[in-house]
Amino acid sequence: MLKNIVITGASKGIGEKIANYLCSIENHKVINIARRKNKNPKIQNLLCDVSNYNEVKKTFKKIKKIDVLINNSGITKFSKNYVKNFDQIIKTNLNGYFYCSTEALRFFKKKKGSSIINISSINAYQAFPNNPGYVSSKGAIISLTRALALDFGSINVRVNSISPGYISEGMSLKSFKNSKSKKQRIDRMIIKRWGTANDLFGAIEYLISEKSAYVTGQDIVIDGGWVAKGL
Known about the structure:
Layout: E1 4-8, H1 13-24, E2 29-34, E3 44-47, H2 53-60, E4 68-71, H3 82-110, E5 115-119, H4 132-152, E6 158-164, H5 173-177, H6 179-187, H7 198-208, E7 219-222
Parallel strand pairs: 1-2, 1-4, 2-3, 4-5, 5-6, 6-7
């Protein structure tokens, strides 16, 4: 069934792969909200910094219809200044999700049965060094997912999240290309390979479809068993 899908941060990395995939199946109409354009001619681009609420409001006024919102925008580094870095990461990775979800609400009120998918990370479950802003933002996204699932549930909007592990593109690409880092991460996985964006598509399709009509407030971890593995 054709859906009108808005995805943030779909100009590169995992977001770009997800957006390109969605517009290739069932002719979903996909809008990318980001600071840069997605080069796929099938995708409409609306340039916006999601960390700026005024920009988000103006951008959503240009949209006519939304069935699904995928919050994906994210940064891992902004400034060498420890405090500025933390603040901007939270504004982009967490506040941006809230801003976009809030602006999408007026569309969802008109058409009940819509869905929000928030992209979190295994960083929500485990601490990783030297980036408290990113770790904090991803943990908070899962809590935001639960909160919005409760608040938006009154108009039959489902809100869920996906937490990818190490994916061989996007933010993890540098580690993937480093043979030592690549091996270290594989050793921590149960399924002994890095993931690809393709490994996320099934969960995305599921959460978009009516097959997940009884699922809300949940996080799906797709990490090759990274979080689950002990010894």
